[in-house]
Amino acid sequence: MTLGPVMAVVCLSQAALGLVQLDTSAFPRVTLSLDQSLPADVPAEDGTPVAPVADAPAPGPWHLAVVIDSSASTEPYAKALRVAVIDVARLLSGVAELAVVDAGSQPRVLCGFTPHSADVVAALRQVVPNGGSALWDGLVAALGVAADAPGRRAVLLITDGRHEGGLAELDDVLLLARQGAIPISCIGIGVDVDGAACRRIAAATGGDARFALTADDLPARVGELAHTYGSTHTLAYRSPRPDTDGATRALAWTAADGTEARLLYRAPLPPGQCGKLLVRALGADGSALPVAYRVMGEQGGDPVDAGVAGRQPVLLPPGRFLVEAQGPFGPPEAVEVAAGRSSALVFRLESRLMVHAPPSTRGEPARVAVRDAGTGELVNIGFAETAMDLPPGEYAVDVGEHPRSSHDRVRLRPGRTEALWVANTGVALVRAANAEGKPLAGAVFLQDPTTRQVQSIGRLCEPLAVPAATYLLDIEAPHTGGLPPLVVRPGAVSEASIGALARVTIEYEGAAGMPVPVAFVRALATDRTFALGDVTEFDIGPGEYELALETIPRIEQALTVSAGEWLKFEFRRFGSLTVGGPEGRRFSLRTRPDGDRPGAWLGVFAHNQTVHLVAGEYEILPENALKGTPARPVEVKPLQNTTIALEAPTRPVAPAAEH
Fold first, then answer.
1. Is the bond preceding residue 290 a cis peptide, omega within 30 degrees?
2. Rounded to two decimals, what is the model's pTM?
3. Alpha-carbon distance 2 to 307, whole Å?
4. What is the full DSSP assignment across 224-273?
5. Which end of the chain has less neighbouring CB within 10 Å, N or C?
6. DSSP 158-203
């Protein structure tokens, strides 16, 4: 019986119910949320048909926690993943609020629930593909965030692979989702995705599972799923058993497709007849860990409840219980809950292990296996550069493809963080500041000084273990290069600091319905081009640049940037041109000649394609026009879309002469 507006669901039928959620916050009024598969008949609770409540308030927005797989394998899909989440925010504007969770080797909640797409975009910029993917840990963190939200809650996982390492198990995720009545939907990308796990999660929680073979298929899957949330229907009724006794009720109905659906839930207990239990889990450094836990009766049996450590307390009837937390916390601990009282239980990890090792030959983080030094039993599996919390003791450590480091011994002491270094490895620490002088987040790239090939990818202001060598530096923010090389020494931390960057803001104004221009920056010194996506504000290093907008032909602006500056550039007075004509035909477009100055050709475009231009005069010449056909003048006005029809004669093709 999880504390919150949506009470615990005990079980869902094995039928694919679609998006399902039950709200008992106003018990004995019960609200059932379904997708477009409305019941074909009147639902029955414990065999008694229920009567819909006519004056039930309209349901609030969905609170959708989006979990993004940020493992190294998602690098080819990184842009598509970000665009997919932005599409979700756009398609569900006014229908849902989004939270973003990074399911990397150490899951992070990047932003809480927000209706503003700008906050979602800012969170997505922090996602950098690197390391493994602790998908179940990411889902646990998302379920914890969702449990704190009011009204309808759901979780969406976008992944290209499978769970790797971490503390959580899939059974913990499913138990948490069912206890909180939080449906989990999955979108899998590519051929390596764990489709069986995605389908199991969706079926067990009332969510949905969809798959995209390529990044190009992703927008369609996102649109289908967003439509599901946008078309959710609700049915409110008064329970025929209005007693707040904590007993289980069975709700059954026939779906529109004839499927028999069944859902069990527990009625709430009166506040005076139950107690609260708050569970916390702490790492070796004292930080809170969002791990899953389950509450069991002292005599065993099925779990009574479940939650996420450090999140909402759970409501329990008076009695003694056993609490088991995921991960190496040891056996379950007993706790007594009294009616009307609050109880607390803290699980504490007493030591932490950090293994520093160079990546594998495939460029992936080295795998780390930790075994009990006495028995040889496997204790934990993870990745280099990812902290492992373990009980104190003696351990043997195997590190990926580095045989000379196999079975290295390490002794973990209570309350201490111990580090194990693989031979010829050091730590690179690169810092950068934005225009305000604050530390800049983003990726840092270490390159081979001869070939300029990227050797390692890390994050600014975070240590990165790499083989001892000399590296050229590059960072995610655009800059002219010329940064001094970084010499990494074995067993040492080598630091480099990049001077304060400048802040550039782009403002534009175009015709109604005009898409956001894609901005590009080209560094003149190195002839490097940086794509900025649809961002309108970015940090940039000192130097000489050209700024261009891809969707607006021949719009360029010279940039001279000094450290710490705030620069603003305005691209205004845009218009649009749409040329109607036969499908498959094309036309050439140039600026209008001015006196002795010929017009500048802008390119070849297809009929019925909208071209965004600076307001002014242009000339159009149809493809395959007869020789001497005059170009047709057209004027493009600011903030307007100019539409013209274009028909042009073509020269007939003479038959080939016979010899």
1. no
2. 0.56
3. 8
4. HHHHHHHT-EEEEEE-S----S--EEEEEEEBTTS-EEEEEEEPPPPGGG
5. C
6. EESS---SSS--HHHHHHHHHHTT--EEEEEESSSS-HHHHHHHHH
pLDDT tens readout for residues 319-367: 999 999 887 677 889 999 998 888 999 988 778 888 887 776 566 778 8
* Residue-wise pLDDT tens digits, 112-161: 999 988 889 889 888 888 777 889 989 999 999 998 888 888 999 999 88
Q: Which of 39, 85, 514 is nearest to 237 (CA)?
A: 39
Please indicate whether residue 405 or residue 373 has the higher confidence score (pLDDT).
Answer: 373
The per-residue pLDDT for range 555-565, each reduced to its tens digit, is 677 888 888 88
H and E: helices and strands count for the chain: 6, 49
Q: What is the pLDDT of residue 4?
A: 39
- d(C-alpha 308, C-alpha 142), whole Å: 10
CB 54 within 8 A of CB 185: no
Does residue 155 sit in helix, strand or coil? strand
Using DSSP, state whether 389 is helix, strand or coil: strand
What torsion, rounded to 10 degrees, do the Cα atoms 165, 169, 173, 175 define? Answer: -170
For the chain, give the percent of residues with pLDDT over 70: 88
Cα 561 from Cα 563, distance rounded (Å): 7
Nearest-CA neighbor of 434 among 381, 475, 490, 388? Answer: 475
Task: Give the other-Cβ count within 10 Å of 181's Cβ.
Answer: 27
DSSP assignment of 559-609 equals: EEE-TT-EEEEEE--EEEEEEE--TT-EEEEEEPPBTTBPPPEEEEEETT-
* Helix (H), strand (E) at residue 278: strand 275-282
Q: Model confidence at 480, in pLDDT bands (50, 70, 90)?
A: low
Q: Determine the pLDDT at residue 585.
A: 84
Tell me the C-alpha distance between 294 and 588, whole Å. 68
Which of these, 308, 320, 242, lies nearest to 275 by C-alpha position?
320
d(CA 343, CA 643): 70
Asked if 60 and 23 count as a contact pair (C-beta separation under 8 A), the reply is: no
The reported pLDDT for the residue numbered 18 is 62
Could you tell me if 184 and 155 are in contact, meaning their C-beta atoms sit under 8 angstroms apart? yes
